[in-house]
Amino acid sequence: MNRAAFLIVALLVAAAPAAAQEDPHLAKAMRVLSRTPLIDGHNDLPWAIRESPAAPRDVHAPAHDLRGHPPFMTDIARLRKGMVGAQFWSVYIPYEAVDSGAARVQLEEIDIAKQLIAAYPDVFEEALSSSDVNRIFGSGKIASLIGMEGGHAIENSLGALRAFYAMGARYMTLTHNGTLDWADAANDEHRHGGLTEFGKEVVREMNRLGMLVDLSHTSPDVMNDALDVSEAPVLWSHADAKALRDHPRNVPDQVLRRLPANGGVVMITFVPDFLTDRGTATIEDVADHIEHVAEIAGIDHVGIGSDFDGITSTPVGLEDVSTYPKVFAELSRRGWSEEDLAKLAGENVLRVMRQAEEVARRLQRERRPSTATLEQLDGKKASD
User: Fold this and answer.
1) How far apart are CA 93 and CA 204, in angstroms?
2) Tens digit of each residue's pLDDT (9 = 90 or more) over 275-329
3) Catalytic member of 217, 247, 289, 292
4) What CATH number is given to the structural domain containing 151?
């Protein structure tokens, strides 16, 4: 850690509330997060800015100033208090965007994310690789990655997929809430029984690029098909354990048991409805889901993906981005070691990124960009 990063950590510890200084588990959590980048898999701030009633799409509007008190779950002071080391900024677009040109809306969302990162150069820096994350975290800044949410954005085009990767997108959620021409969504009709042949080619091309395959929002059959096809570790940028909460967005144990062979990571989300059916979710519920994934898949296969600014309610005690250390403190109380907490915080995701990058380097030596189309592989035209 360089001198700048050390000073930031020292200031955070010095400014910690008395409760943190008196609680050995919270102190342990802060110690881990001071040396390991806490990588959150999913924050929807770019969409929140786009939809903001105060100034839609305007990153630079006074109401959206992240140095102040914007009407979001995210700002700079709270990111620092939460000890966030790296953030996948989601560039979500709704499924309905296909009616007006999904690729255009996706470009606009990427533009918002890039403006957001560039607006605070002393705080954020765009990361395109695992080595970037480590370097930026070491400099005391928050490494900022871009994650696409919803394969409808590529409009059945592998060329569009490659263009989005070139613009900085480092994961793509294969579906959002709508079933595509080539992949079934968890919350929609399952028309294909998983991935079509074109859908499998999307996964193969993502592997060749080094773009992470995000299986959040997909049906279990898509999860299994992707695990069959993918040569690189996959991830779930924001999902929970289906065994604890029987929700279609959560990951079944049968899939979790396949993760050691693939190397993938489930990033546990704070969406209350995915955590519990009681109505009010708690930090303890989040810890329960983390521990379940660790028990079934292994400690190397779990991470954090909050979905802040993409949700309207949160678990009690996890209201915004300042609260992550509370989750780590709860797990410490349950007996988690500093080594285990570091894996959860970011080491597991960094390993996934490194391995995906290694696979991409090999595949780029072995094959050229795919020119396959939906019509060629599935024998059908895109849905009207």
Assistant:
1) 23
2) 999 989 999 999 999 999 999 999 999 999 999 999 999 999 999 999 999 999 9
3) 217
4) 3.20.20.140
Q: Is residue 315 part of a domain?
A: yes
- Give me the catalytic one of 201, 307, 347, 378: 307
Long-range contacts at 102-108 (CB < 8 A, ≥ 24 apart): 102/150, 102/152, 102/153, 102/154, 102/155, 103/153, 103/154, 103/155, 103/157, 103/160, 105/153, 106/148, 106/153, 106/164, 107/167, 108/50, 108/57
Active-site residue (options: 25, 64, 152, 176) = 176
C-alpha torsion angle, residues 66, 70, 72, 76 (rounded to 10)? 20
Catalytic residue list contains 190? no
Is 228 an active-site residue?
Answer: no
Q: Which residues contact 369 (CB under 8 A, 6 or more apart)?
A: 158, 162, 205, 208
Inside any domain, residue 301: yes
Beta strands in the chain (DSSP E): 38-43, 84-90, 124-126, 142-149, 169-173, 212-214, 235-239, 265-268, 302-304
**301 is a catalytic site residue:** no
205 in active site: no
Q: What are phi and psi of 17, to 5 degrees?
A: -65, 160
152 included as an active-site residue: no
Q: Tell me whether residue 246 is exposed, middle or buried, using C-beta atoms within 10 angstroms of its C-beta: 0 to 12, 13 to 18, 19 or more.
A: exposed
Q: 100-105: which pairs have CB atoms within 8 A and are 24 or more residues apart?
A: 102/150, 102/152, 102/153, 102/154, 102/155, 103/153, 103/154, 103/155, 103/157, 103/160, 105/153
User: Could you tell me if 52 and 309 are in contact, meaning their C-beta atoms sit under 8 angstroms apart?
Assistant: no
Q: Which of 23, 40, 44, 214 is catalytic?
A: 44
Q: Is 189 a catalytic residue?
A: no
Q: How confident is the model at residue 19 (pLDDT cuts 50, 70, 90)?
A: low
SS3 282: strand
Does the residue 133 lie in any domain? yes
Average pLDDT, the chain: 95
Our count of domains for the chain comes to 1
Q: What is the pLDDT of residues 36-69, one digit of tens each?
A: 999 999 999 999 999 999 999 999 999 999 999 9
Domain ranges, residue 162: 3-378
pTM for the whole structure: 0.94
Q: Is residue 384 part of a domain?
A: no
Is 217 annotated as catalytic?
Answer: yes
First to last CA, the chain: 54
